[in-house]
């Protein structure tokens, strides 16, 4: 029984299978490579998976953002002021700057070049990711530093 007297049910088989699948997917990404299996399972529980058709805009330059994405499959193009900047692929984090500084608009537009599968990262999950998993925080900081250097 739960604290409020309601019956607590174990996670469904499909929920457990999805979490294991997500954990396996995370293990293949440099962002999560330093995490233990247990940490990856916990992190996987923070995210929902979504399918994004080719041509769909994931994030729009100039808008405030309330979610980020971790690409699982497919590619997405980054542009600023309508000019192509880069192509992102599996393992890349998209839109995290909007979650780090919620008062500033997005700095780029990211459009799915191909069909994309991605984890959706909401502000609460992102905060948990940063505070509970310092190894991931360091990887995110390093990725941001690389982007800053490349832009200079």
Count, helices: 5
Total DSSP E strands: 8
Summarize the amount of helix as a percent range.
25-40%
Let me know the largest β-sheet. 4 strands, antiparallel
Overall structural class, as computed from helix and strand content, comes to alpha+beta
Low-confidence stretches: 1-17
Relevant CATH superfamily of the domain at 48-151 = Jelly Rolls
Strand content: 15-25%
Terminal Cα span: 57 Å
Q: What Rg is obtained from the alpha carbons, in whole angstroms?
A: 17 Å
Mean pLDDT metric: 87
Q: What are the defining features of this structure?
A:
152 residues; alpha+beta; Jelly Rolls; four-stranded antiparallel β-sheet; 8 strands; 37% helix; globular
Topology summary:
Elements: H1 13-27, H2 37-44, E1 48-52, E2 57-59, E3 68-73, E4 76-80, E5 83-88, E6 93-94, H3 96-100, E7 109-112, E8 116-121, H4 123-132, H5 134-151
Antiparallel strand pairs: 1-8, 2-7, 3-6, 3-8, 4-5, 4-7
Helix pairs in contact: 1-2
């Amino acid at each position: 029984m739960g604290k409020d007297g309601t019956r607590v049910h174990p996670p469904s088989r499909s929920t457990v299978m999805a979490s294991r699948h997500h954990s396996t997917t995370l293990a293949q990404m440099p962002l999560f490579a330093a995490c233990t299996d247990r940490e990856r399972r916990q992190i996987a529980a923070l995210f929902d998976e979504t399918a994004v058709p080719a041509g769909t805009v994931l994030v729009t330059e100039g808008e405030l953002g309330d979610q980020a994405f971790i690409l699982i499959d497919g590619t997405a193009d980054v542009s600023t002021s309508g000019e192509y900047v880069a192509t992102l692929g599996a393992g890349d984090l998209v839109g995290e700057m909007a979650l780090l500084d919620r008062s500033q608009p997005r700095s780029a537009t990211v459009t799915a070049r191909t069909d994309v599968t991605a984890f959706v990262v909401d502000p609460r999950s992102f905060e948990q990711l940063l505070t509970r998993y310092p190894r991931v925080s360091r990887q995110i900081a390093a990725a941001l530093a690389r982007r800053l250097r490349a832009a200079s």
